[in-house]
Amino acid sequence: LFDTHRTNVWQGTRITITAGPTREAIDPVRYISNHSSGKMGYALAAAAQQLGAEVTLISGPVTLPSPPGVNVIHVESAEQMLAAAQAQTMDVFVSCAAVADYRPAEVSQQKIKKEQKGDDAQLTLVKNPDILKTIATQPQPPFCIGFAAETEKVRQHALDKLQRKQLQLIVANDVSDKQIGFNSDNNAVTVYWQDGEQSFAAQSKQNLANALNELFAQHYFKNKP
Ligand code: CTP
Ligand code: CA
């Protein structure tokens, strides 16, 4: 039924994907962010488009070209990413972005000067909204897929997030293995759902994106009312 050569597995499906890091301003020239390259999210968007989906990619600051045929919305902060996600009509939400968990409590309107701070400086942070959880717990939520990069107890943390964020699927990768994951061109993951799991061996993010889209589509169409 789901042969891998089909080009239309997603036909007629509206998919929103978040990708890349977010950037949380400290002052006009400084920010807090992380090392996410956006490669996995961009590869997922390109693959989903090729498989017939109508794809919107909400992207944090990355250096990647827009995938052909994909509607790309560029954002910087987690709050902007949430607003962009909430503005979409979607059947499937794929939350691949490495969202900054915290942002500076105050953004200085002027460049912060050392003279004001002295030898020690503190930055007060506040928690960012959980974009995925917000979308997954709204009334009539889309089919929601999360990602989890973990350094230990990968299965336990992934299943906990699946439950806590009310997701249909979560894609987990072990980032203690330096060869794969963040910033790499390759990735190995395990996908978990309520009563099952499937592992994908290390491979290019392009190949993995195709395989993941096939699995996502199987689950989406199986669970679709
Ligand atoms: N996520 C999100 N908004 C946030 C934080 C995370 O949408 N503010 C999404 C990520 O895109 C990912 C999933 O939630 O799909 C899990 O992200 P992760 O950082 O692993 O989980 P957290 O809930 O932030 O927990 P922690 O970082 O403490 O492990
Ligand atoms: Ca986090």
Specify the overall morphology. globular
Euclidean distance between termini CA atoms:
19 Å
Strand order of the largest sheet: 5-4-1-6-9-10-11-12
Instruction: Extract low-pLDDT stretches.
Output: none
How many DSSP-defined strands?
A: 12
Q: Percent range for helical residues?
A: 25-40%
Write down the Rg. 18 Å
Measured by DSSP, the beta-strand proportion falls in 25-35%
What is the N-to-C succession of helices and strands? EEEHEEHEEHEHEHEEEH
Average pLDDT: 94
Distinct small-molecule ligands in the complex: cytidine-5'-triphosphate, calcium ion
Please report the number of helical segments: 6
How would you classify the helix and strand content by structural class? Answer: alpha/beta
**Main sheet, how many strands, which sense, barrel?**
8 strands, mixed
Summarize this, please?
The chain is of the alpha/beta class.
Helix and strand topology:
Layout: E1 14-19, E2 24-27, E3 30-32, H1 39-50, E4 54-59, E5 71-74, H2 78-86, E6 92-95, E7 102-104, H3 114-117, E8 125-127, H4 131-136, E9 143-150, H5 154-164, E10 169-174, E11 186-193, E12 196-204, H6 205-223
Parallel strand pairs: 1-4, 1-6, 4-5, 6-9, 9-10
Antiparallel strand pairs: 2-3, 7-8, 10-11, 11-12
Helix pairs in contact: 1-6
Cytidine-5'-triphosphate binds next to α4 and β9.
